[in-house]
Specification:
The complex is a heterodimer of chains A (701) and B (502). With 701 residues, chain A is mainly alpha-helical. Chain A contains 27 helices and 2 strands. A two-stranded antiparallel sheet of chain A has the order 1-2. In chain A, strand 1 and strand 2 form a beta hairpin. In chain A, helix 11 packs antiparallel against helix 14 and helix 13 crosses helix 17. With 502 residues, chain B is mainly alpha-helical. Chain B is built from 21 helices and 4 strands. A two-stranded antiparallel sheet of chain B has the order 1-2. Chain B has a two-stranded antiparallel ribbon with strand order 3-4. The chains are: A mainly alpha (701), B mainly alpha (502). Chains A and B meet through strand 1 and helix 27 of A and helix 8, helix 10, helix 11, helix 13 and helix 18 of B.
Chain lengths: 701, 502
């Protein structure tokens, strides 16, 4: 398989979903069966991405880049000569993302065939899935910031369409608006960040920008601007990947159809932010990375505390998603690049499995979402239960699962970071979150599937979902087992994913702005002598590698301990009933309410941003009514007085003048009308007249 | 005779056109009964001419060289600039032949269809020579050849009084304009002693002529050319003729005839008044006449008048007539910067203008065919009853405004880049404001099609396959060039060569 074939296939993968969208959205009304076309298109895209992944990983260790010049601006006066290139870049993480996105998109398509059955906008739903997949694939494939931004906004748009798919419901319409607006706030930062880079480097292409940074060419001549650009672009990820303080849109977005939640909140849209940070990882300075790590750690902590007390099955999953995304972002911030991306992949599978599983439950329970009304569903829906259990084990970090591998790596990374830099708070938060995650996920499982049914009416009608819905669950649960990633269930490093597929790229920022451990050893550099080209060989210092080894087993045992503790507590509360959750909640009521009400963040935003906007609107309106109108009324009075005086003046002086002007305008108007009413004589006369006027105006003396 | 042979080699497209004309007239005389195949002769002739043009595209040189005091100077300059405009004319002509297949008006005069196409071919021949001519006499002759054919075509159908009125007005107005131009030419000849543009250029380099007379001659010639490109204040014929002529001819006049006029204007000024082109592509004018100010004034006047008058029009053809006047104003902006960048902008804009303007006329024609309406108020609700034509019309109109993602935006973008490059910000701002004004009357049509409820049931217009393909052929590039326009720009970049002596 040649490089050009890979490129062509990738372009085909990108545009197939767009084709699906166009055809289905245009003809869907006439041919209701057309959703099958969309499903078929995604299947083809999935198969192609499988082929591309296999070919790329087996035969091409280097990046494959294809680009063309879109606009040649010539020499614009302010910016000099520049071109705008469009193109795609295919490296290992690209093909893995292609696979993940297409697989989950396909499974969501299949799941939706049953789940959305009977919806009045059935085909339109599938066309939206198509444009969403297209946008996400664009983000994955692009090799420049401009396309990244375009597809970024497209993802924003298509998520708006999907979240608000049931727009008759006010809550859904509000949620889609909220998602769109909150995302926009982050995007402004990203836009400014991109502009900083573009203004300095006259290019949008990642590689070209990094080459210039590597050559020591700082934006506006100062590395502080590089930090600023990194953090600003990261703001885009804060919006899309639902990081604190912009995470508030994601839980509300659960108003969308549940398969949509699985698609956009597990594998694609929210992963886009993390993916963006992996793309700009090489240009992040130490300060930017620390910011990112702190934001990620804090996000995961906040979301985990909120998830402890939520009662809506999808809300728990939503906050758990926010928390896990915080993990990934934190992991990037502490330099554990490979584990961050690895966790992105494993999380995509088990979280999609959970969302689809919750969809299956909700479907069976006739759109009941409150876990307090569930219970005992294990007997009724065994397949849903077991798949859900496997993914819960994975997210809790129980050995033999994929989640154990990736989570463990992240925890080890934070521990190493703490030891090397002294920021111990980050690993502390990370381990606390690990424990909380195990607790609230098992709380969810126990309340939903175990114990006695609490709503007998709904329970009696519950039944296992149709085959088309459980098949995706089984596939995703299977992918949450360690064996796909490594032969050794306790050491992710020895597996093929981490040892050969994902490689941490070398940073290009100047040495003095990097963390010490992100500098390759001097000895190594002289030995290889080509570190500029050696993206993805050795990035970290030997000290870092040693510290990671030191942290590996410590982190593993510590994480096992906290996860075990969390699970134990969950069983104690909800299975053996040794402890009473309600009594505990009563005892620590302020804390409980703080968590239940999501840290009151929505209220804070309402009070500040939303009300601020509304109040300033009111303020302007008041100003308009009282001050402006008052001034107008006052001046009206003055005017009346003046007008009396001028009335007299008018009648006698102005009218005479006006009448004269009217006569003149009438004459001119007559002339103008004559111009175009069809008298050719006049036309001719006017041409001659024009020639004379021109001659008088432009005569050379 | 070697010279003659080389010359004929260079003007192969024109020869092909002439032969097609002769064949067509002969066939028209021989076959009285069935004239259905006549259009295909015209079409074949046009295609062959097009092929010769493409084959000639890399050739350049002078045809009909005469030895003068100054050296060897040709009557006809074959260069990439000329070929570009000739290709535009040929593309437009081919499209117009297809338009004529769809046009109800043209279908009603099948017995005289031979004359229609003969006149069309004659007009094209005139345009071809007009585009290439470097001698004032040849310029005048080809201008007349082109004009005389168009006078007849404007009133050709004789279905309504308006047709004859349009033709007569066109004739009278055109005669006066060409008279003025001839006067200017004679003055220029008197001042320099030659009718050849290159010789005139050399004479002007060391001027000892009367400057006032020279200015007078220039303005008179400008009046003649301005009439062809319908630049204000020489535009008065345009709305009346566009409204009265058959819609195919209106569309044709608005694109092809204007293209030929612009080619003439550019070549005339470039060859006669530019002393040299510097390394950055700026044209240095000979300091004998302030062409820059004149053209700036005219272009601003043209676009302002065109746009403001269009606001008040209710007839779609009349509205498009004023819109085409406004676009002539924009196009002139590309010339006033006097640089290769400006010329590039004109070429790019013209291709795009061709697509969107012909498209708008085509949709208007299809609607008029079916409903008989040319009034914008009668378009109410058409967007809903005829979705395909509605959407196509929206695309063409949006492109005419110059909004992304349509090609019209790219055309304007290159024009404004050229203006900003030349530091003519004030002019750019005026052009921008004019675009804002144009938004009003273009969107008004869209509003009528989609938002205004019709008073009576609107007749659905279902285009047949031929029309659908024709509309699609124009819609697709209008959208495509809005996104991927590099090939277009590259083509234009390779067509900047205007033969000079140096």
């Amino acid at each position: 398989m040649s490089e050009s074939l890979i490129i062509n296939l990738s372009v085909a993968i990108l545009f197939l979903p767009l084709l699906g969208f166009t055809v289905v959205v245009l003809l869907g009304k006439r041919f209701p069966k057309l959703y099958l076309f969309e499903v078929g298109i995604i299947s083809i895209a999935f198969i192609l991405s499988l082929i591309v992944m296999f070919a790329k990983l087996s035969y091409y260790p280097n990046n494959i880049v294809a680009q063309f010049t879109w606009i040649t601006m010539g020499s614009a006066p302010s910016a000099g000569s520049f071109n705008i290139d469009l193109g795609i870049s295919i490296d290992n993480i690209t093909v893995m993302m292609l696979f993940v996105v297409n697989l989950i998109s396909l499974l969501v398509h299949l799941f939706s065939i049953e789940y959305m059955h009977g919806d009045k906008r059935y085909t339109r739903y599938f066309s939206y899935l198509g444009i969403f997949t297209f946008s996400m694939l664009g983000i994955v494939l692009t090799n420049n910031l401009l396309m990244m931004y375009i597809f970024w906004e497209l993802v924003g748009l298509s998520s708006y369409l999907l979240i608000g798919f049931w727009f008759e419901k006010k809550s859904a319409a509000d949620a889609s608006k909220k998602a769109f607006i909150v995302n926009r706030i982050g995007d402004i930062g990203m836009f400014i960040g991109i502009l900083i880079l573009f203004a300095n480097y006259q290019t949008f292409t990642f590689d070209a920008i990094y080459a210039q940074i590597e050559a020591g060419n700082m934006p506006f001549g100062d590395s502080a601007w590089l930090t600023a650009a990194g953090i600003l672009i990261f703001l885009g990820a804060v919006g899309k990947s639902a990081q604190f303080p912009l995470h508030v849109w994601l839980p509300d977005a659960m108003e969308g159809p549940t398969p949509v939640s699985a698609l956009i909140h597990a594998a694609t849209m929210v992963a886009a932010g993390v993916y963006l940070v992996t793309r700009i990882f090489v240009m992040l300075t130490a300060d930017a990375m620390l910011t990112i790590a702190v934001v990620g750690a804090f996000t995961s902590f906040v979301a985990a505390t909120i998830a402890l007390t939520q009662n809506d099955i999808k809300k728990v999953l939503a906050y758990s998603t926010v928390s896990q995304l915080g993990y990934m972002v934190m992991s990037l911030g502490v330099g554990a690049y490979a584990f961050a991306f690895f966790h992105l992949v494993t999380h995509a599978f088990f979280k999609a499995c959970m969302f689809l599983g919750s969809g299956s439950v909700i479907h069976a329970m006739h759109h009941e979402q409150d876990i307090r009304n569930m219970g005992g569903l294990k007997k009724k829906m065994p397949i849903t239960y077991y798949t859900f259990l496997i993914s819960t084990l994975a997210i809790s970090g129980v050995p033999l699962t994929s989640g154990f591998l990736s989570k463990d790596g992240i925890l080890a990374g934070t521990l190493a970071f703490g030891k090397l830099t002294g920021h111990w708070l980050i690993p502390l938060m990370a381990f606390t979150v690990a424990g909380m995650t195990a607790f609230y996920m098992f709380r969810l499982v126990l309340l939903t599937f175990h114990g006695e049914p609490r709503d007998h009416h709904k329970y009696d009608h519950a039944h296992e979902s149709p085959k088309l819905m459980v098949a995706p669950l089984v596939i995703l649960a299977a992918l949450s087992v360690f064996i796909w990633y490594t032969p050794n269930p306790i050491a992710a490093d020895s597996g093929w994913v981490l040892s050969s597929w994902i490689k941490t790229p070398t940073q290009v920022v100047p040495n003095e702005t990097r963390f010490d451990f992100m500098k390759p050893d001097a000895a190594f550099e002289t030995n290889s002598g080509q570190h500029a080209e050696s993206h993805g060989t050795i990035t970290h210092s030997t000290l870092y590698t040693e510290t990671m080894h030191w942290a590996h087993y410590k982190a593993m045992f510590a994480s096992l301990a906290v996860a075990g503790l969390g699970i134990l507590l969950a069983f104690a509360f909800y299975f053996w009933k040794k402890l009473n959750a309600d009594k505990l909640a009563e005892k620590i009521k302020p804390l409980y309410n703080f968590s239940l009400n999501k840290w009151y963040l929505d209220e804070v935003y309402d009070a500040t941003a939303v009300n601020g906007t509304l109040n300033s609107g009111k303020g302007f309106s008041w100003f308009d009514q009282k001050i402006v109108d008052g001034a107008v009324n006052g001046s009206a009075y003055v005017t009346r007085v003046v007008s009396k005086i001028s009335g007299w003046f008018d009648t006698y002086v102005v009218d005479g003048f006006v009448n004269f002007t009217a006569l003149l305008s009438g004459f001119v108007g007559l002339l103008f009308r004559k111009l175009q009413t069809g008298k050719v004589q006049t036309y001719v006369a006017f041409v001659v007249f024009a020639v004379i006027v021109l001659l008088l105006l432009f005569k050379p003396f | 005779m070697a010279n003659l042979y080389q010359s004929l080699e260079l003007i192969k497209p024109e020869i092909a056109l002439s032969i097609a004309l002769i064949v067509l007239v002969t066939c028209d005389l021989i076959f009285h009964k069935d004239k259905k195949f006549i259009p295909y002769i015209a079409l074949g002739g046009l295609l062959i001419t097009g092929i010769f043009l493409l084959a000639n595209s890399s050739v350049s040189g002078f045809a009909f060289i005469q030895t003068d005091l100054m050296g060897k100077i040709g009557l006809v300059a074959v260069d990439s600039f000329g070929t570009f405009f000739k290709l535009l004319v040929i593309i437009t002509s081919i499209l117009i032949v297809f338009f004529s297949f769809s046009s109800e008006e043209i279908q009603k005069i099948t017995d005289r269809i031979g004359e229609y196409y003969a006149l069309l071919l004659g007009m094209i021949l005139g345009m071809f020579f007009l585009i290439s001519a470097t001698d004032l006499i040849l310029i005048y002759l080809s201008l007349e050849l082109m004009s005389l054919s168009s006078y007849v075509l404007a009133g050709f159908t004789k279905l309504r009084d308006r047709n004859s009125e349009a033709a007569l007005k066109y004739l009278i107005y055109g005669s006066v304009s060409s008279g003025l131009m001839l006067f200017g030419i004679s003055l220029l000849y008197g001042l320099t002693g030659s009718t050849n543009l290159y010789v005139i250029n050399m004479m002007l380099q060391s001027p000892n002529a009367n400057m006032f007379t020279l200015a007078f001659a220039n303005i008179l010639i400008l009046a003649g050319i301005g009439y062809k490109i319908s630049a204000a204040p020489f535009h008065f014929w345009t709305p009346d003729v566009y409204e009265g002529a058959p819609i195919t001819i209106t569309a044709y006049l608005s694109v092809a005839s204007k293209a030929a006029g612009f080619a003439l204007l550019i070549r005339f000024i470039k060859t006669t008044f530019v002393s040299f082109v510097d390394s950055t592509g700026n044209w240095q004018l000979i300091q004998v006449f302030d062409w820059k100010s004149v053209l700036i004034a005219l272009s601003i006047l043209t676009m302002t008048l065109g746009n403001f008058s269009a606001i008040w029009q209710n007839n779609i053809k009349r509205m498009l007539a004023f819109s085409s006047i406004a676009h002539a104003g924009y196009l002139m902006l590309g010339l006033v910067v006097f640089s290769n960048g400006g010329l590039l902008a004109i070429l790019v804009y013209f291709v795009i203008y061709l697509l969107m303007n012909l498209g708008a006329f085509l949709v208007a024609m299809l609607i008029a065919n079916k409903t008989g309406f040319e009034d914008i108020n009668d378009y109410n609700g058409l967007g809903h009853t005829s979705p395909f034509l509605g959407i196509a019309m929206v695309i063409f109109l949006v492109s005419l405004v110059g909004l992304p993602p349509t090609a019209g935006f790219i055309g304007k973008l290159y024009l404004f880049i050229a203006l900003v490059d030349a530091k003519m910000l004030a002019v750019a701002v005026i052009a921008l404001l004019n675009s804002v004004v144009s938004l009003y009357y273009y969107v008004r049509v869209i509003k009528h099609m989609y938002l205004t409820a019709p008073e009576k049931e609107t007749q659905a217009v279902k285009p047949n396959l031929h029309d659908t393909i024709l509309v699609t052929v124009l819609v697709i590039p209008t959208l495509l060039f809005g996104i991927y326009f590099q090939p277009l720009v590259n083509w234009a970049k390779n067509s900047l060569e205007i033969l000079g002596l140096m």
